[in-house]
Amino acid sequence: MAEQEKDNTFTVVAVVTAIAIAGVLLLKMDETKHLKMSGETTAQQEAQVLAKHKDFNNDILSQAK
Question: Which of 15, 32, 12 is nearest to 23 (CA)?
C-alpha cells in the first residue's frame, strides 16, 4: 500500500491565525501607551495650543471678504 502524505494545511492556517491574533493583541496593548505618558491637560492648555494652530484651509473666497 502506498503511504498517504500528511496534509499540514490546517496546522499552517492555525499557526498563522494564532500569530495574527497575538500581533493584534500586542498592538492593542501599545495603542494608548502614549496617552498615559502625556499626563492630564486642562482646557486652558488646550486653548493655548489651538490658538497657535495655523489653519491650512484653502478657501480663498472667504478670506477675500
Answer: 15
